[in-house]
Amino acid sequence: MLDERKLAVLRAIVEDYVSTTEPVGSKSLVDRHNLDVSPATIRNDMAVLEEQGFIVQPHTSAGRIPTDKGYRLFVDRLSGVKPLSSAERRAIETFLAGAYDLDDVVMRTVRLLAQLTRQVAVVQYPSLTRSSVRHVELVPLAAKRIMLVIITDTGRVEQRSMELPDAAEEDSIMHLRAVLNACLDGRRLTEVASVVADLPELVDPMDRPNAAAVFSVILETLVERTDERVVVGGAANLTTADFSKGLREVLESLEEQVVLMRLLGESGDHPSLTVRIGAENPVEGLRSTSVVAAGYGTGDQVLARLGVLGPTRMDYPTAMGAVRAVARYVGQILAGS
Amino acid sequence: MLDERKLAVLRAIVEDYVSTTEPVGSKSLVDRHNLDVSPATIRNDMAVLEEQGFIVQPHTSAGRIPTDKGYRLFVDRLSGVKPLSSAERRAIETFLAGAYDLDDVVMRTVRLLAQLTRQVAVVQYPSLTRSSVRHVELVPLAAKRIMLVIITDTGRVEQRSMELPDAAEEDSIMHLRAVLNACLDGRRLTEVASVVADLPELVDPMDRPNAAAVFSVILETLVERTDERVVVGGAANLTTADFSKGLREVLESLEEQVVLMRLLGESGDHPSLTVRIGAENPVEGLRSTSVVAAGYGTGDQVLARLGVLGPTRMDYPTAMGAVRAVARYVGQILAGS
DNA sequence: ACTTGGCACTCAGGACGGTGGAGTGCCAGG
DNA sequence: CCTGGCACTCCACCGTCCTGAGTGCCAAGT
Question: How far is CA B80 from CA A87, A266, B11, B74, B319, in A?
Fold first, then answer.
């Protein structure tokens, strides 16, 4: 149905349109790429491609531009993942190696991705539900007020200050802390709920009310709160691509955590590259953008996802290369700390 | 030099221009506001105002628009701070009251400000240098690796994972932790440097190398690192105001922490409202924007600053009202937690 | 059965020119 | 010092024309 040349034509159209931002016509195609046929032939091919829905013309007698479906075919069958230059690889390594903090890693990653791809970068913090507890700390702040700090093996630190029902002695808080650490240390967060249910028995009856309060906050923080943090960077890159009035819509979407999560793909269990093009996108208002995302993690374990967002007219091979490479390096960094 | 009426004219011009985005002429001025004079008179006044540099015409025979100097005069002498409606006050209260976390407070504040003013909101985290230590926690992660967590009285939690020179027993870490808390608890961060200098003597000689490492990281984190965190929200509001191509520049500036700090005003010791108009702005690239900022804190203590950023053509009275009100409420919330 | 050159056709976008209207500056008279 | 009148300026808008890039189709060639 689509012979070899027609595919080549589609590829050429995508490439040209991405680099020039202008509808591409049969003439300019033949001399830019060395297709050994005449413009007329190309026109026939283009007519077919258009009929099949891979390209359209913005108006009669203008060049063609790819449709979402066209990009999809391009990504699936016509283009590979462009590997980074060695200079870029080194840049990534040195840039990420300097980080000393989970926050810092995430921040640097966002900047890096944005700079590498000249698109908007989106990085999700290592998922809470996939990490395990490394330490629980209770810090007395006032008579009836403590701060709860939970540290995970991925380096995430969740903190929450809370009111206690009863005034508590330093001792009883320390005891509670010991119990918590003994029972929760090393547990996957998904197990926490069941473990916590059994805890009250281990606590001095006097302290039960306080303990119960703490337990419920722990559950709230670790289990119920799905709020996975997401960081965005490089929004300035949106100005290059003219979304005309849609820009506002895009910027607004980027400020909503929930939207960003859906964007990266809630499933996200496999580390491979995911590409969502235009209307494939689950988010209303980002229907004119594409997302290239990948999971990252330590070893085989996928902790979270990261990616870039840009206009559907995006340099997919490069974006995919950058996302994949960065995801790998971030995984290494996290594994090593 | 500028009589009463000329000032009224300037005020009217600013108000009209802000609300319509269009140059305002003598005719439309007289019937919109009830100045009891003829357009011709107004024209004379406008000629004077223009000569003095308060207004300009974009081109001959168009209306006038205010200059930075004009806005400055408007803010200083012609407009008060518009108090919020009671509905807005209630909205602020309920919205902020729901926060359970410093992070949460900051995030909510940003959203609130952005929504209230329809501008870009900028909120700085409570300054480290102005807070005091409430607790220091050392969490063993591996044989030679610990996580250092510092909690301040403003609710900020700074964390940092670090490598130790020697493997350390749980005991010696707990001891170090006790020493640190005994000596640092309640200290202003500015005092930390001198206190830490005396610490090594209190530590078992065996543990000195590890202790030294920890101390130096504490200093790095609390003292040397000026990196005050700043959060931005409502960037989508920039699209309404047409900066044309300057938009990219503005967005880029907003992604740089350092720039944002300078924007809010590094001085920032007084809690009162600060307005920076156009070229008054210290930041290259934000010369076409204005910033309305205020300090916030608990009681008389200024912890940090927050504000909004928008085009010079901005509704100053409203923005000032919102910023002032939000700053106060945030102070209250922080004081109460 | 493709490919090719030729040809007529379409249409967005830039250049040109005219017009209307909002706004101005200036002046002479109240 | 204010005011009405008047001539002037120039942007924004509108229709027109024109050009060029690009197309679809067809008939001829391989």
Answer: 56, 49, 11, 9, 11
Strand ranges (E), B255-330: 274-277, 289-296, 304-311
Taking alpha carbons only, the member of B269, B125, B129, B127 closest to residue B192 is: B129
Selected residue of A104, A105, A120, A157 to mutate for chain B interface (largest B Cβ count, 10 A): A157
Rg (chain A; Cα; Å): 26
What's the pLDDT at A227?
61
Contacting residues 14-53/A vs strand C (CB within 7 A): 36-38, 40-41, 44
**Could you identify the residue whose CA is nearest to the C1' atom of nucleotide C24?**
B61
Q: Residue B137's pLDDT is what?
A: 86
From B134, B251, B337, residue closest to A236, measured CB to CB: B251
How distant is the alpha carbon of residue B67 from its chain centre?
24
Contacts of residue A160 in chain B, CB cutoff 8 Å? 100-101
Residue B189 in contact with residue B156, Cβ under 8 Å? no
Q: What is the tens place of the pLDDT at every residue in B1-27? A: 789 999 999 999 999 999 999 999 999
* Residue A326 pLDDT exceeds 90: yes
pLDDT digits (tens, 9 = 90+) for A83-101: 999 999 999 999 999 887 8
Q: B305 beta carbon < 7 A from strand C?
A: no
Chain A 276..295 CB hits on strand C (< 7 A): none
A245 contacts on B by Cβ (under 8 Å): 239
B101 vs A159, A236, A239: nearest CB: A159
| pLDDT bucket at B225, cuts 50 / 70 / 90 | low
- Note whether B40 and B29 are within 8 A (CB): no
CB B5 under 7 Å to nucleic chain D: yes
pLDDT at A301: 81
Q: What is the pLDDT of residues A282-309, one digit of tens each?
A: 998 899 999 999 999 887 788 899 999 9
Q: Which residue has the tokens 């504490």?
A: B218
Q: Is pLDDT at A266 greater than 70 in this prediction? A: no
Q: What is the dihedral of CA B114, A217, A101, A254, to 10 degrees?
A: -30
d(CA B107, CA B115): 12
Instruction: Round to whole Å and give the CA distance between A121 and A260.
Output: 11
Q: Please tell me the pTM assigned to this model.
A: 0.89
CA distance A63 to A17: 10
Give A286 to chain B, closest Cα distance, Å. 14
- For A95-138, the pLDDT digits (tens) are 999 887 888 899 999 999 999 999 999 999 988 777 888 888 88
